[in-house]
Amino acid sequence: MMRKDSHSKPIEVSNLSMTFRSDDGTSINALAPTNLEIEPGQFVAIVGPSGCGKSTLLNILAGFLTPSEGQASIGNEAVAGPSIDHGVVFQDYALFPWLTVLENVAFGLKSQGLGRSERNEIALHFLDVVSLRDFSDKRPRELSGGMKQRVAIARTFATNPSVILMDEPFGALDALTRRFLQQQLLKIWSESRKTVLFITHSVQEAVFLADRIIVMTARPGRIKSDFLIDMDHPRDFSSDAFRRIEKMVFDSLDEELAKTFGLADNQLQAD
Amino acid sequence: MHFLRHSLPYALALLAIGTVWQIAVWVSQANVAILPPPLLTLATLWELIANGDLAKHTLASLSRVVSAWGLSVLVAVPLALVMARSRTVERLLDPVIELFRPISPLAWIPLAILWFGIGETGKIFIIFVATFFPILLNTVSGVKGVDPVLIRAGRVLGCNNEATLFWRVILPAAMPTIIVGLRIAFGTGWAAIIAAELVAAQSGLGYLIADGMEILRSDLVLAGMIAIGVLGVLIDSIFRFIGNQYDWGPA
């Protein structure tokens, strides 16, 4: 296929912390000093209670936020701001409503200076991968939520970034659509093996997709546990191995949920 | 079919107005110089069309509005962009705008005459004042209303500087609101030019009706008024058509 120069880069986070100062002068410690190393081509899922700073971490890596302390680097280069080399898939799709599906997917390719025919060729290829070639000329408003997110994924992969940051990309979708999109994501990812950082609320989703799962603590967020998932794709939700890993992650997460909701650990277990 | 569905209400409205008008003529028994019957007025209108007077005056009014409106676009849109992207500039300019906005453009007519005389400049100045605020305020709200996530998406998709981001994301995203402002501005400009021409002009639709009054020809006045109304609707529907091209709905 085109552009064989598919590449992926490592992500390194050292002593990264983030404190937000609100208008009334109080400060919120969103992210405690965090260290994290992600190998090139690794698919990492981050799970944690709401407000644990996982989106903050992603926004720092994407270059949308400047950390209070510490450093985030991608491919041994400090993150200085948003870059087309660091793709982002947003929870609410962020498609450009005035552009057609094809133009949306080709948007980044135009920034990369490609000519029209080359842009369209690449964009159509990625629309093929997410099975939306027939919708090339539609506007985003004509698509369902799941279709929009497939377009957004195609748009990000099309620019051939070296890492892809995904912020709860399937969070707004129903369970069935979600399953289908997880499969499509694996398909498009297996074609290029990009480094992926995937934030989710769903343990099952994390176990289904990721090579590695990181559980974060309640605020201020820290890395609590780090699981390597050594299972072949496609993974079977009902297999014993899947269930065992799922339980491990849940056990780790439960303590944090208990803290978030101010319950004793045993209360939650009893429920 | 589409055309018929949209023009039918207008046809009915015209019929209703004509009927009420004719009844008023019968009941009041007014002098024809004060209240001419609708058919006589239509005949006058036709005469104005046939002898080219209407085209001449329409062109005069329209060219004033178009040039002043265009000037407004050139000044208000860039200013609005700066205001929408910079809090400091907005805070500085907002009170000035709020103080000037309630002053009707017609209140500027005396000053316009004192400063610029009764030539074209004064009229363009008045229309500029009339069209400036709708364009400015709508552009500001359009740009401020751009979904921040689209701006983020633009940045991670290679819009590395403000200019690229503006052309590829902010402007198209704000376009529907900006077009509403352009449309409203043209409407207020169209209303203001007639008033400006009533006071001081040798051409234009406003002059046409003012002249009709002076020579006691209310059929001329009414024919001019009909032309103003019909042209206003036509211009507005052109803007609506353009606006619909940008109505892409939610993402």
Please state the oligomeric state of the protein chains shown. Answer: heterodimer
Order of helices and strands of chain A: EEEHEEEHHHEHEHEEHH
CATH topology of the domain at 63-201 in chain B: MetI-like fold
Distance between the termini of chain A: 52 Å
Summarize the structure.
The complex is a heterodimer of chains A (271) and B (251). Chain A has 271 residues and is of the alpha/beta class.
From the structure above, extract its key features.
heterodimer, A: alpha/beta, Rossmann fold, 2 domains, six-stranded mixed sheet, four-stranded antiparallel sheet, 8 helices, 10 strands, B: 251 residues, mainly alpha, MetI-like fold, 10 helices, 0% strand
Please render the helix and strand layout as text:
The complex is a heterodimer of chains A (271) and B (251).
Chain A: E1 11-21, E2 27-38, E3 43-47, H1 54-62, E4 69-74, E5 77-78, E6 86-89, H2 101-111, H3 116-129, H4 145-158, E7 163-167, H5 175-192, E8 195-199, H6 203-209, E9 212-216, E10 223-228, H7 240-260, H8 265-270
Parallel strand pairs in A: 3-8, 3-9, 6-7, 7-8
Antiparallel strand pairs in A: 1-2, 1-4, 4-5, 9-10
Helix pairs in contact in A: 2-3, 2-4, 3-4, 4-5, 6-7
Chain B: H1 2-28, H2 38-50, H3 53-85, H4 87-100, H5 109-116, H6 120-144, H7 148-156, H8 162-199, H9 205-214, H10 218-245
Helix pairs in contact in B: 2-10, 3-4, 3-6, 3-8, 3-9, 5-6, 6-8, 7-8, 8-9, 8-10, 9-10
Descriptive report:
The complex is a heterodimer of chains A (about 270) and B (about 250). With about 270 residues, chain A is of the alpha/beta class. Chain A has 2 domains: about 10-85 and about 165-270, Rossmann fold; about 95-160, no CATH class. Chain A contains 8 helices and 10 strands. In chain A, strands 6-7-8-3-9-10 form a 6-stranded mixed beta sheet, sandwiched between helices. A 4-stranded antiparallel beta sheet of chain A has the order 2-1-4-5, covered by helices on one side. The radius of gyration of chain A is 19 Å and the shape is globular. The model of chain A has no long low-confidence stretch (mean pLDDT about 90). Chain B is mainly alpha-helical. Chain B has a domain at about 65-200: MetI-like fold (Orthogonal Bundle). Chain B is about 80% helix and about 0% strand. Chain B contains 10 helices and no strands. Chain B has helices at about 1-30, 40-50, 55-85, 85-100, 110-115, 120-145, 150-155, 160-200, 205-215, 220-245. The longest helix of chain B is centred in the last third of the chain and has 38 residues, at about 160-200. In chain B, about 35% of the residues are buried. The interface of A and B includes residues 82, 88, 110, 139 and 159 of A.
